[in-house]
């Protein structure tokens, strides 16, 4: 069976789709799994062994998009998060069986509409995605491996050794990623991150690294000034999502807000300390990672100033505990 799985939004959203893609392939290895993704997520999708083919929604003319969907000859599609464009394209491509959540106007173009009420956050985003696979295969097993994304060990060693040589790293790495690309509802200030960085840098048995993505050059420059005299490695990710994910696989702890890089760290099942907005929509309940539960150390950041201060002290205490055991 040719199964088209559609998730064309941001990086973190796509990572939450991967468990569904994985279990569809595991259910019957003869299934051909086709992922329809945003351009940002193409390289990562192509690295996943359980995805057989990738098509891109790059905003191309609708007719061209329809032809590309028609070309994969899908027997069924599962749209994990819909919009009118992807819904109409599948309808025009005449996919016989089109499954999607029953939300918004787009649901009119699907012939199997599933009421999920995701806004109520009764489960995590990736769990809602897994629920949709049961519409196609009632008996499907929804458990998945951790780490979900497996890279060749030689590639991981090569990437990490190159990083260590370039930056003179010889100790276990604790990484901080202060940026968030506008995709998080809550975060510490850069000054607060620097406070955490300086706290961990006092530990002679670990190496602190601050990571920065594309478009975070100003944040990088500010961090250099604020961390002057502190033993910190500053790393700018310029080689793409896959290269950064391979590097993350060798880190011992990744500290960030709930953004795409957090989900990448979870994908390779490393320990994470993650900061979430104090609302149901932005909460860890909704954006729980695809990593093992014991690897996750979440904190909700309250808006109240006094409670935020208390939370910051709790974060420092937990950081000290975690880094003393590396």
Tell me what the structure shows.
This protein has a 6-stranded parallel sheet with strand order 3-2-1-4-5-6, with helices on both faces. The protein has 12 helices and 12 strands. It has 2 domains: 2-136, Glycogen Phosphorylase B (Rossmann fold, 3-Layer(aba) Sandwich); 153-323, Rossmann fold. Helix content is 40%, strand content 19%. It has 326 residues and is α/β, with parallel strands linked by helices. Helix 8 links the parallel strand 8 and strand 9.
CATH architecture classification name of the largest domain: 3-Layer(aba) Sandwich
Q: Give the termini distance in whole angstroms.
A: 46 Å
In terms of per-residue confidence, which ranges show pLDDT below 50 for 5 or more consecutive residues?
none
SS strand fraction: 15-25%
CATH superfamily of the largest domain: Glycogen Phosphorylase B
Helix tally equals 12
Biggest sheet details: 6 strands, parallel
Strand order across the biggest sheet? Answer: 3-2-1-4-5-6
Helix content: 25-40%
